[in-house]
Amino acid sequence: MTTDLQERLDASFDEGPPHRPVEERLAAGRRAVRRRRGTATIGAAVALAVLAVGPVLLRPAAGGGGGIELPLPLPTPTTTAAPTPVHLLTAPARFVHADTPPVLYLYGRMFRRDRDVTVLATYGEIDVARHPQGGAIVRIGSQTRWVLVVGNEPERLDEQREAPYDYQAFMGWARAEFAVMSGRLALAATAPGPYSPPLSDNESPAGYDGDLLVAKPGGSVVQRIRHPVVDELAVLSCHDQAVRVRTPGGDWFVLGYDCPEQGALYSERVGVRADTLSSWLVQVKRVQDEFELMT
Amino acid sequence: MRVDARERAYVEFVTARQTHLRRIAYAICGDWGRADDVLQAALIRLYVAWPRVQRMGVEDAYVRRLVVRANVDEHRRPWRREGPGQDGPDRPVGDRDRTDRTDPTERTALFEDLQALPAMQRKTVVLRHWLGLSVEETAEELGISTGSVQSHSSRALAALHVAPSRETR
To answer: Whole-number mean pLDDT of chain B?
Structure first.
């Protein structure tokens, strides 16, 4: 019966009038991208794409990158052949701190932290202007590390792992992680007040238990919104939900996406951007709408 | 992803799928002009989001969700989830002779009956019974519970004078 209905519904109307030219659709898409990129240069800060599955636009570091707009393209990614050191300038000492990763972005350009870092390969999203995100395989002493960085110092998020030289695997990791990292950094960088690094999933007061976002021990979920409106750009099968978590140290908002190949949590203290979960999500959505860019 | 490769892939997708996707929009809204606008808006967003959507291989589902929710957004405020009676009372569908479903005019009547359904019932029929999504997938798509999908489905099929099948995955 269902199949019968399916066939009858399919036959109940035709294909409609001719489509507008595909060039028109393409041009509209290009205009949308230009508008978003243009908006991003005006001022604010950061693009928050679809959080877990979207990338972002990063603003020049407050006070640090003023007046310098465009990052230079990264060096061309190396091949999967035997590693050949890539020349990167060494960062000025004043930008290097205890937590500085082996490679970092200054004014949109990648530098190595110091002369102890040998860069074996680099990878950068050079199609994305103004919001640097890239990575490198580096050697420090006898250790080989994969490093990803998003954003100009000091608003920077990085991830590292110890791993052998494998450029293809590294690129796969980078592509997946950039979306999460950039979304997470966007949330942190658009928050009012001094910049503070975003929380990792481990640091978040919430986490997924199956399909459900729950509080970690010591906390409790006091409010939950399933499929918040920010999921508009999410994809099917993502368990997207937002919760307010009460912990002894205060309340947190956590927006979670648990998608088939990706997942991430976006956590922020209550009161930083908004006082209610709904208004917080509105703010997140606004950032998303205003600054979304693609990788 | 390089721009030229991205655009090639995008154009290829749009060319291949726009007819099907616009039919979904049309089945939901019942107006070709509106359907085209909804699809155009969705395809613009797809272009912007293309790299990650293509990476996940969910281009069709992504546009379909935007198309379905474009209509939802007109009627729902942010954060508002479905509640009892949100669709309003069921409206009667056309009272037509249903003895010959192969008659072309009868096909149109079925479509018009579909349009007479409340929005959520209509969308449920489109997703569940035309596109063949499971109950769970339909619920996910519409942002409602599986129970609501079954309820909408049951009421819609009754209004369309179609015997319900088992509502399982």
So the answer is: 75
